[in-house]
Amino acid sequence: MTFDTLAQDLAMENGVGNATNREFLATQHAADIAQFLTEHDADIDWRVLDLLELQRQAEVLGYLDREVQVELAKSAPRARLAAIVTEMDSDDRADLFNALSEEEQEALLPALAQAEREDIRRLAGYKEGTAGAIMTSDYAVLTPDITARQALDKLRLEAPDKETIYRAYVIDPERKLIGSVRLQDLILVAPATRIEKVMERNTLAVSVDEDQESVAQKIARYDRLALPVVDADGRIVGIVTHDDAIDVITQEATEDFHKSGTVRGLGESVRDAGIFILYRARVAWLVLLVFGNIFSGAGIAYFEDTIASHLALLFFLPLLIASGGNAGAQAATLMVRAIATGDVRTADWGKMLGRETLVAGLLGLTMALAIYGIGVWRGGPEIAVVVSVSMIIIVLVGSLIGMTLPFILTRFRMDPATASGPLVTSIADAVGVLIYFAIATAWLL
Amino acid sequence: MTFDTLAQDLAMENGVGNATNREFLATQHAADIAQFLTEHDADIDWRVLDLLELQRQAEVLGYLDREVQVELAKSAPRARLAAIVTEMDSDDRADLFNALSEEEQEALLPALAQAEREDIRRLAGYKEGTAGAIMTSDYAVLTPDITARQALDKLRLEAPDKETIYRAYVIDPERKLIGSVRLQDLILVAPATRIEKVMERNTLAVSVDEDQESVAQKIARYDRLALPVVDADGRIVGIVTHDDAIDVITQEATEDFHKSGTVRGLGESVRDAGIFILYRARVAWLVLLVFGNIFSGAGIAYFEDTIASHLALLFFLPLLIASGGNAGAQAATLMVRAIATGDVRTADWGKMLGRETLVAGLLGLTMALAIYGIGVWRGGPEIAVVVSVSMIIIVLVGSLIGMTLPFILTRFRMDPATASGPLVTSIADAVGVLIYFAIATAWLL
């Protein structure tokens, strides 16, 4: 039995609730079932979900992309949806709720129990991109006065409803976070030991409005399974878990990568995005860059006399302006990623500038040597000198523009990832045209 | 007390082993102490490490970047280094060992106990980039015949030496992996229950030579804390943990990002890399791209007559060729990242081609409209038509090149990330020059 034979079964008969299919699905990971649902239509999806227990249905739903979730939610009777939603992890549930239209939200809420309703309202209220928006409220808490044995009994009871019980959080009567304790320490110490004796005080925590990228970086940096989230008064309101941290890191890397190619936020998979969504993600930057390149054109037009008297200069035009753009793109790429991973801070600009000048100078020199011979061959010694000198200056200036732009964007609270790729290339191109023909005019006329 | 005052203390007096510093360090996370060491010299670093217990020294060392580790290892007496290395996690230890020179390795090995020596030799033997190279051998195993109580006792005893005991792996007499069991299930069931009754059979596992990126993706996809690694005979040889998965994902994203800007593998932080290392990472591609752009130059030279009789064409040259390059870079960026995250497979090329043709056609049309007016103004109606028609074709062709290149590279087992950015831009540029002047020549002459 495989997913392929399941698909055949579903296509052939109407009621697929046979024992073989049920057994097969019971052995599969929820993530794989979710993948199968993504590749099929909503009516098939519901027939597959029917073969699972309610708790598993909720688990599978949690692994689906947002759009597929919404698609399924729309086609389900309200009571059925409410039953599954009740079983979902609180963070997945709040995300799904946020993705529904206002009417769908209003239809769903009354079908839920009071506790779930309040939990959804509370979690859905946090701003997107913050710790509050990705945290779950399914965490375990303990009080400092109970014993390890009592704590274990409590965790044992609560385990099925919690995302993780490997670390429990210790709170005072006002729910203020005062420490945390690992499950492994609870089973290690004598059963009569009080929690306040084993707990880790000053436990790491993040604020509810902290940026999700910064939270994910902390989980990665400190190798934590989860980090507690506290409000302005130090009260625990949720936890962010390691699997959400991986999702955030992957998502932010994808966004940065897209921005580096001047593609705007897509919000969904390239494979599933519609034509118009893809068009919209690309058109604004392309048109903007067209007008950016008009400066290069104007530069060329300005030097028309120089060009008309030395048409051989044109041969080297693409090569010279592309070299400035390429060197700039390299410099920008290095800085953008270093800033994104926290490797380099804005204060480091001075240090980086000195090194970039040296590296770019060496690169320009190498490329000038590489191009000199071709210059002599295509245009004679005079043109060769113009081309070589231009190359050094263009690579140097392009690189400095490329490394500086990410710092400037960060300073003005814009995303530096935009600066690598086409944007920096266009700017360096225009500057390259001016440098080349200015040097040529001065030398040859 | 802060790290700043600690630095002042270290700069002032010689013996800094005072109680305040010791206490301060005891409250700090190992990752933060490692950060402090990275920012100071080896002699200061050793004085700080002296204030920590041996186990903590090893933990801090594990958080350091490879180069800093090697720096410290070189400046330590052999016996001292051996003592710390013995306490390190087995994966960190093998990585450090691999980074040492052959002589340093030979000097270190005799100072270690037999068990550590064999463990290092075994782990160091796996190829870089595979599951074997990032796995740790500090995992907990159980046999199926013992009870939950016996299992808990065993885990309790072993906990300090294991990276995680939250999941233990169940093996048969030949060490073949037959299942796994969560700590939380062990404390949940009746103490007399046998492991074979609670264990999860068909537990997820990866092969020792599986690519590290694929292992990390599985940990992310299935939300696991760790995945067991098995050899060709199904015997467990290690585990890869979630924190290593995050490191791999971050590292691979950085590499892809660098390649998209035609920067070769740097192997270390941009902040700390030397001038020559940065030069070497950039020069090869820059020079290669120069020669790539010679095709554009040759294209222009070939159409010199057309240009000489219509110099106004030059104004639109940078704009038209950049548009093809930019549209190509966008298309490539979307495909490269979608392939890297497993969103799109090579088999999807056909489907993607159809959609890209539609999207690129729309984009080309939009840009042709945007540029038509400027064409009339700068060159008259005839040139405006040439420029607009060229724009549509150039954007379409550039986009198709950009989306196809990543698939071709993947097919030939090369890294598609190279295809976004400057490489695709250069190719699209050259094609753009030919299209523009071919249309201009046909229309105007």
UniProtKB/TrEMBL annotation, chains A, B:
It comes from Pelagibacterium lentulum. One of its GO terms (molecular function) is metal ion binding. Keywords: CBS domain, Cell membrane, Magnesium, Membrane, Metal-binding, Transmembrane, Transmembrane helix, Transport. It holds the Pfam family MgtE. Acts as a magnesium transporter. It is a multi-pass membrane protein. Homodimer. GO terms for cellular component: plasma membrane. It is found in: Cell membrane; Membrane. This is Magnesium transporter MgtE. Residues 135-197, 199-255 form the CBS domain. The keyword Metal-binding applies. The chain crosses the membrane at residues 283-303, 315-336, 357-377, 383-409, 421-444. The keyword Nucleotide-binding does not apply. PANTHER family: MAGNESIUM TRANSPORTER MGTE. Belongs to the SLC41A transporter family. Coiled coil: none annotated. InterPro entries: CBS_dom, CBS_dom_sf, Mg_transptr_MgtE_intracell_dom, MgtE_N_sf, MgtE_transporter, SLC41_membr_dom, SLC41_membr_dom_sf.
